[in-house]
Design goal:
Length: 1186
């Protein structure tokens, strides 16, 4: 059989092969081009960052050079002066002064700051060393340099320049010399061909040699600059840092006291230049148990009595995530469990403050017995036992004492023998005795008379081979009679560096990086040019550009010490370093007092400056106190279960406990699968999102708010407004079209804020949800579009989260009903309903049904469904917990949430047939009022009220709302008839706080005024730092009073019916506050008119009258239907007043000014306004002078 192909087939095969090769080449070229393009895109930011880094290095080098130049500003070098006759420093001074006198320069010794020979003198070296002369003034140096030409032969004067400047000077001089030689060669006669070739070769060699010299010099110059050991991408941490200090330092110190913030600040300053990672502290003298996070470290304290004993720890912030738990056993023992990096075993660090030799035997034995139990419990861990033992161990007495090393100190005391017995019992080693040290560096405590020095502070461990050194820090600049003991632990740097992000406070608008705006502009052009709707990629690029922006973060406030304080600390440091410390004891004591007082003054000055800045700007202190926050408290321990008394202090267990609690709270076993997630929306029936909507939503975001998980703050969005608006508009519209919700929107972080009650109960913490601000902008846009429809579906019974409604409307309605029912002796029953975790428990299905029934377009319902479909949250304490799903409740922190909740509640009440229930008011039925989830029911018949509560309870349960029986209360002016929920009776009360105001059938105004005065004083004393300070002007105090304290006194005053007694109560309260502001006592007999003339604060009674008058006129003129307006005009037709004088009515004051037809007058705005001044001044005495 012939295997050869025919010519046609051969030709066809050749063409096919040729085409395949061409296609292969084309594909290869395209793939190569695509890969190169992607590589260029990825390398481009790195190049930009490298250029930026290079510029920064150049700037730093210039700064270093300038600093060096400034330090040598007054220096000159004198060369060639003989040094054979110099035996004393005075000889050198005489030599220089006589030399300068020879060039007509008179210089005195006081004009010489420094004078010395440079370099070491060799034995057989005939070369003279230059003399460095530093003058006290620049003028003297210039005078010398002007006359330097008059110097004798072989002597000359030069500038003292930095090495880098000298190299550049020599380099330029060498280049200038070579150029001169080349010019000479050009002008010389033309040589023969051979000579020309030879000369050219020589010139080339010289040029090459000169180039090599320049390169070497440049290389040497680069070597002198401290560049990083290797290149790292800008903005990222080095994952494998090169360091010679591969140790962890663990220390112990008896501070004598750390009770005040000033003493802690003094200790911070003393530790500034010291290597430390963990410090155990004795005698902290802080009462209670607490954990606080500062800027650079954590601090734990345990104490029982304020000003006595107490122990604790200071831990560097980079070890925060390795802490397992703290446990304060007593005021003498504290435990820290920590996983030190690169060690598998758990480390148990125990800080102690042992009883003294004079303590009772039983106390000493009790201490060691407790310590023995603790060591036995943690025997499987690596143990460090350290602190002030008040025991002198001394030197090893025999070879059987294997727990001691060969380098002990002093004699042994009874407590010392007890400690040695304890060490041998548990096989622990005293690290102080292992490492050989100078005798002067062994003692840790000196007696009050400075005659005795003993070693009583120790570091002990069951694994001594892990430690490379134990030493006594002899020069710690802190006033205590103890010295710090510090042990160095072997450690290798972790492969991945730990990042600590400080809590963001605020970002400065003016500090927005221009590079971010440029990169956003490029991204905008890229997205606008593309027709792709890939939301995931677009959003990821946007987030990357915004998070690359370097925020100006203001984290926890850190107080700085003034120069006078630092000078005092340095002065005391010199006394500490002096060998004659005994003679300096009194000076050290006096300086320590001055330092303490100076630190107190610095802190006070700093605080007052920040308070004044914010008070002047806003009138309040909230932002100032937020900026001044030094620390963040940690949760010390939590109950593992709500019904269990067992507690945990383990950091991971605390996070897991909180995660379990909120995971259970937000879980819904009956939740249906939401299949609409990420399903494309077929067509947009609503208009697209406009740039103006995005811009409005961004500008409406509040400043100084904590960001979500992406760390993008509102300030970043506002700072890049022009660039980010087109990008967000495109992305938002793509989200609406595609139905895809970015994953970054699904997860929020929950932080816990303590409210009241037991701190161990997780239910006593308020969860605050932090979600990404880009989502909040989108949510606000959707809210603006649907809020009008939702508000139109709300009846006038609902006043929460609605425009033109406030708490005052419902407070006034309830008080008017109580007042008029009491006046006409009619029975009234009210039920104040409270739901358990209302916003966190409603069913998601109920939300969708409510939105659909109230006419919200399906397009928006599907969008909101997609957002809720895969919502997750993580508990954020000092670390993040595991993510859990949000299967019920509205998303906390979401702008949509209040409206969604109101919509669900409205659907609940629509299903209730209450036409025959409630109070008859001018032909209408008022059966309930709502302000968000605060609900009050009204009825004259208790049996009907029972039915109302039962029906409301059943319908509420269907949407996931459950009544809190303990907090749901009843109130009546008639007989107490039993009303039950779920077979449990509800409690009747005489008074109830509704929307911040006391509701009562008996003397409710007096009760409310008493409460307002108490709240006013509470607010006043919370602002004591401002109101009682002599540093603030009266204008500042007046502004704080009018802004912060006056609203506490006047809240709800629009609904009050005041008598002279009530007015006197308020008047006397304000006068007392004014006297306190001015530091005036009643005994000083200063007239009230004089005090008011100085303070010029707003009079509380005038303010109350103005607010009541204006609100009344506004309410009666309002065209919108409100129950507050209806009940004002209404009075019962079927009741009967009691005999005698009636109680003070709300409207009585208005009648006195506007007459019996005051309602008609109120509807005329101009006439009502004319009467306002008369109404506000009818009860005043002092106000006439203002």
């Amino acid at each position: 059989m012939n295997n050869e192909l025919s010519p046609e087939m051969s030709l066809l095969l050749a063409k096919v092969t040729e085409l395949l090769n061409a296609q292969t080449n084309t594909i290869t070229e395209n793939i190569t081009a695509a890969i190169l393009k992607q590589v260029d895109e990825k390398i481009k930011p790195i190049r930009e960052e490298n250029e930026k880094l290079k510029n920064e290095v150049e700037v730093l080098n210039k700064k270093i050079l300038n600093l060096e130049m400034n330090s040598k500003r007054n220096n000159i070098l004198i060369h060639g002066l003989p040094e054979a006759s110099e035996e004393k420093h005075e000889d050198l001074i005489n030599l220089v002064t006589s030399t300068l006198k020879g060039i007509e320069i008179e210089i005195e010794s006081r004009e010489i700051d420094r004078l010395q020979r440079l370099g070491k003198r060799g034995e057989n070296d005939s070369k003279t060393r230059p003399i460095l002369l530093t003058t006290t003034t620049l003028q003297k140096k210039i005078q010398i340099l002007r006359n330097k030409k008059k110097m004798k032969p072989n002597t000359y004067i030069t500038h003292d320049l930095p090495k880098q400047k000298l190299l550049l000077k020599k380099e330029s001089k060498s280049t200038y010399t070579n150029r001169n030689e080349m010019e000479k060669r050009k002008r010389s006669e033309t040589p023969s061909p051979g000579a020309e070739k030879s000369q050219l070769s020589t010139t080339n060699n010289q040029t090459k040699q000169h180039t090599t010299q320049i390169k070497n010099k440049k290389y040497n110059n680069l070597k002198e600059i401290n560049l990083p050991p290797r290149m790292v991408t800008a903005g990222e941490s080095d994952r494998h840092p090169l360091t010679t200090n591969n140790r962890i330092y663990i220390a112990t110190l008896n501070t004598r006291t750390l009770r005040t913030p000033e003493s802690l600040l003094e200790l911070e300053e003393a530790l500034k230049d010291l290597h430390w990672d963990i410090i155990g502290i004795s005698e902290m003298r802080r009462a209670g148990e607490a954990i606080h996070e500062h800027l650079d470290y954590l601090i734990f304290n345990k104490g029982e009595m304020r000003g006595q004993g107490g122990v604790g720890f200071m831990i560097k912030i980079h070890l925060k995530n390795y802490i397992q738990d703290f446990h304060g056993v007593s005021e003498r023992i504290a435990i820290l469990n920590i996983r030190i990096p690169n060690y598998k075993k758990m480390w148990t660090v125990i800080q102690v403050y042992a009883p003294t030799e004079q303590a009772d035997y039983s106390e000493i034995e009790s201490f060691y017995s407790k310590l023995s139990q603790i060591v036995t419990t943690h025997t499987n861990n690596t143990i460090i036992l350290m602190g002030d033992y008040n025991a002198q161990v001394g030197t090893k007495q025999n070879n059987d004492e294997y727990v001691l090393g060969n380098f002990g100190y002093g004699k042994r005391s009874p407590n010392g023998q007890r400690l040695v017995d304890f060490l041998m019992e548990h096989n622990l080693t005293l690290l102080n005795s292992i490492f050989k040290k100078n005798v002067n560096n062994k003692w840790t405590w000196f007696s009050p008379d400075k005659k005795s020095r003993n070693e009583i502070d120790y570091i002990i461990s069951n694994h001594p081979k892990l430690f490379t050194d134990t030493s006594v820090i002899s020069k710690l600049n802190f006033n205590t009679d103890h010295r710090m003991v510090r042990a160095a632990l072997k450690a290798t740097p972790a492969k991945l560096s730990r990042k600590h992000i400080a809590p963001t406070r605020t970002t400065d608008h003016s500090d927005i990086n221009q590079l971010t705006s440029h990169s956003l502009d490029r991204l905008r052009d890229e997205l606008m040019a593309s027709d792709s709707r890939d939301v995931k990629t677009s959003y990821a690029k946007l987030q990357k550009n915004l998070t690359n922006h370097k925020n100006k973060k203001l984290s926890k406030h850190k107080y700085t010490l003034s120069n006078p304080t630092l000078q005092l600390i340095n002065e005391r440091k010199s006394l500490f370093n002096n060998k004659l410390r005994k003679q300096n004891t009194q000076k050290i004591t006096e300086l320590s007092k001055r330092i303490r007082n100076s630190i107190i003054k610095d802190r006070k000055t700093n605080r007052l400056h920040i308070l004044e800045k914010h008070i002047t700007r806003t009138g309040g202190t909230r932002r100032a106190l937020k900026e001044l926050r030094e620390k963040t408290p940690w949760i010390i321990n939590l109950k593992k279960n709500c019904n269990d008394n067992g507690r945990t202090s383990n950091r991971k267990e605390i996070n897991k406990t909180a995660t379990r609690f909120y995971s259970s709270l937000y879980s819904n076993q009956h939740a249906r699968e939401q299949r609409e997630r990420n399903s494309p929306i077929s067509s947009i029936t609503e208009p697209k999102i406009l740039p103006s909507e995005v811009k409005k939503a961004i500008l409406s975001q509040k400043p100084d708010k904590a960001p979500g998980p992406d760390e993008i703050t509102n300030e970043i969005l506002k700072g890049t407004l022009e660039s980010v608006v087109p990008l967000l508009t495109k992305i938002y519209n793509d989200i609406l079209l595609s139905g895809y919700i970015p994953e970054q929107w699904e997860t929020s972080h929950i932080v816990l804020i303590y409210k009241k009650g037991l701190k161990e109960d997780i239910g006593n913490y308020r969860p605050i949800s932090l979600m990404t601000n880009i989502y909040k902008v989108f949510s606000k846009i959707i809210l603006d579009r649907i809020s009008t429809t939702l508000d139109e579906n709300q009846p006038m019974e609902q006043a929460g989260f609605r425009k033109n409604f406030s708490t005052i409307d419902h407070i006034h309605t309830v008080k008017q009903i109580v007042e008029k029912y009491n006046e006409f002796n009619k029975p009234l029953y009210m039920a104040f309903i409270d739901y358990t975790k209302a916003f966190d428990s409603i069913s998601h299905e109920a939300i969708w049904d409510s939105l659909e029934s109230q006419g919200i377009p399906t397009f928006y319902i599907k969008t909101i469904k997609s957002i809720y479909a895969n919502s997750k949250a993580r508990i954020k304490l000092e670390s993040l917990g595991e993510a859990f799903k949000i299967e019920r409740g509205v998303r906390q922190g979401d702008p949509l949430s209040p409206k969604l909740f109101s919509a669900v509640l409205e659907n609940v009440f629509r299903k209730l047939d209450w036409e025959g229930y409630g109070l008859r008011i001018d032909g209408r039925k008022l059966n309930h009022l709502r302000f968000a989830d605060d609900i009050v029911l009204f009825e004259e018949n208790p049996s009907k009220l029972q039915k109302m509560i039962d029906e409301l309870n059943n319908e509420s349960n269907n949407v996931g709302l459950f009544m809190n029986i303990k907090k749901t209360k009843l109130m009546t002016n008639s007989e107490n008839r039993e009303i039950i929920i779920n077979n449990l009776p509800l409690e009747y009360v005489n008074e109830y706080t509704y929307l911040g105001q006391i509701i009562s059938h008996v003397d409710q105004t007096t009760k409310e005024i008493t409460k307002r005065i108490a709240n006013g004083w509470r607010r006043y004393w919370s602002l004591k730092e401002v109101m009682k300070s002599t540093e603030f002007s009266i204008a500042i105090k007046r502004k704080v009073f009018n802004t912060c304290i006056l609203p506490c006194l006047t809240y709800g005053c629009e609904t009050w019916s005041l008598t002279k007694y009530h007015r006197d109560m308020l008047k006397f309260c304000q006068r007392a506050m004014e006297r306190s502001m001015m530091s005036i006592k009643k005994q000083d007999r200063v007239r009230n008119t004089t005090i008011r003339f100085k303070t010029k604060v707003t009079d509380v009674l005038t303010k109350i009258d103005q607010l009541k008058w204006r609100w009344t006129g506004h309410t009666l003129r309002c065209n919108q239907e409100k129950w507050s307006k209806i009940v004002t005009d209404w009075y019962p037709r079927d009741g009967k007043r009691r005999r005698g004088r009636q109680h003070r009515r709300w409207e009585d004051e208005l009648k006195l000014t506007a007459g019996p037809n005051w309602r008609r007058v109120a509807r005329d705005r101009n006439q009502w306004k004319m009467l306002e001044e008369a109404f506000a001044k009818r009860h005043t005495e002092l106000r006439d002078i203002l």
